[in-house]
Specification:
The chain is built from 15 helices and 23 strands. With 456 residues, it is α/β, with parallel strands linked by helices. The strands form six sheets. The protein has a six-stranded mixed sheet, covered by helices on one side. It is globular. The N and C termini lie far apart (78 Å).
Length: 456
């Protein structure tokens, strides 16, 4: 048996958490040879990090260049938290290809900055075929000016030719473990799926039928590594093994360490731009209604051109102090990549939502995900809605001075994170949702601060 070997390093869902990044890069660089590839599976950029925000993600591209990444695909944080023009230029200076098969312009053409597949010939002669796909958040991509396709039809179309040309086929996936498992069971042409999105920690990977699935958690806690052995006589993968490398005690890559320091200094300069001069402090308390949280809820409602609004107090991480307010201050107190949204609810659905909002479970929920980058959700803040509540008991709800009517339809300005699942089921189930993109909640805060006190 004539065996050829290759090593794959992979990162996913870094979310601009760079605490261990220089260590990770050092490990990859030290272990590389001509039969090694390194992939990033998306959500490397997260605009909750000031460096990513200030550089519009291009700082992340610089870091990936320094890490000598071979191929990347994008996650939803790259795909739907940047405006279309920003994403089109995110990889202008990239020294690596972006492999992504299911993103299109609205006219059906693929963007110039992506390729659906790639073939990579290693030093030992093996040809590795790559195909990339990302999670199809259809409504969001469409609103930003893209067309995102379901991954399976695209895979079916692209894999035929790729399998004919490649010895080994690897899927770069930002779909999540459950979708990866479905694909592994359905597409036997794929040898390895390197995954992301659901932040699963798979210490030894997971095998579905004959396909190895690997995923390395989130935030750079682990570096993923896959070893593959290929028999050139049978032309088959005879062994594949996934492991996770804890690099927290590894030495740092000095070039990456210097680059991060330079980027931080540039970030401070860019975010020092003045937005407003506050005449008084806008306090924030997560479990109460304050001037700060009410100010933002009112601004959200006004910006969405509605009379009713609601959001949790926990989206503001701290008070805004009297005096000069900069872009950096606004990003610090409201870092979330959360978009404004308008939903229509019946009075019955709104009542259900309000009652759930005042439960101890929701008020004290330390939410992770859905774009939320705070500590706890806190109290629900309203505009145009008055709630008579004692402890967790809601006694009455008044809408613009009138008693709530169960069958009436109410249009409410709120946050897109409520439409994604279990937080507020009635909002998620709403048949009418309208998202505002690419603006984030902090853009609304900056807009209103500037409008009211920008010339102070």
């Amino acid at each position: 048996m004539a065996v050829k070997r290759l090593t794959l390093f992979h990162t996913n869902d870094i979310h601009s958490c760079f605490e261990h990044w220089a260590q990770m890069v050092a490990h990859i660089k030290n272990q590389r040879d001509e039969n090694t590839l390194y992939f990033d599976l998306g959500d490397h950029a997260d605009r909750s990090n000031p460096v990513t925000e200030a550089s519009i993600g291009q700082g992340n591209t610089r870091l990936l260049n320094e890490a000598q990444v071979d191929y990347v695909t994008i996650g939803n944080n790259e795909g739907i938290t940047f405006a279309k023009e920003q994403l089109e230029h995110l990889y202008d200076d990239a020294a690596f290809p972006v492999v992504l098969a299911n993103l299109f312009e609205q006219n059906g053409r693929r963007p110039d900055w992506v390729r659906p597949t790639a073939l990579h010939r290693l030093g030992n002669g093996l040809t590795v075929g790559l195909i990339g796909v990302t999670a199809p958040f259809t409504t969001f991509y469409q609103q930003l000016g893209w067309r995102i396709a379901p991954p399976k039809p695209v895979l079916k179309e692209q894999l035929v030719a790729l399998r004919q040309e490649a010895d080994i086929v690897i899927l770069l996936s930002h779909l999540g473990l459950f979708r990866d498992e479905e694909i592994a069971a359905e597409f036997e042409e794929i040898d390895v799926i390197i995954g992301a999105h659901t932040h699963h920690v798979l210490p030894a990977g997971k095998r579905v039928v004959g396909t190895l699935i690997a995923q390395a958690g989130k935030f750079g806690a682990y570096l993923g590594q896959v070893q593959i052995e290929y028999d050139t006589e049978s032309q088959q993968v005879v062994e594949s093994e996934a492991t996770l490398v804890d690099i927290s005690k590894s030495p740092e890559d000095e070039r990456t360490k210097t680059l991060l320091a330079d980027m931080k200094a540039e970030t401070e300069r860019l975010l020092a731009e003045q937005v407003a001069v506050l005449p008084e402090r806008l306090p924030v308390v997560w479990q109460a209604r304050t001037k700060g949280t009410q100010f933002l809820c009112d601004a959200l409602t006004e910006w969405c051109d509605q009379e009713l609004g609601m959001m949790h107090a926990g989206v503001l991480l701290e008070a805004l102090e009297a005096g000069v307010i900069t872009k950096g201050d606004i990003h610090r107190v409201c870092p979330h990549p959360i978009n404004p949204c308008v939903v229509e609810l019946t009075g019955r659905q709104l009542e259900e939502t309000v009652k759930r909002a005042f439960t101890k479970e929701l008020r004290q929920l330390e939410l992770k995900g859905f774009g939320f980058r705070g500590k706890v959700l806190g109290q629900m803040i309203f505009t145009g809605i008055e709630v008579d509540v004692t402890a967790e008991s809601v006694h009455s709800i008044t809408i613009l001075g009138e008693k709530l009517r169960a069958d009436q339809i109410y249009s409410i300005a709120t946050l897109d994170m409520y439409t994604f699942g279990h937080l507020l089921p009635a909002v998620a189930d709403s048949a009418t949702k309208r998202y505002f993109m690419p603006e984030f909640l902090r853009d609304i805060l900056a807009w209103k601060l500037s409008q009211q006190w920008g010339n102070a």
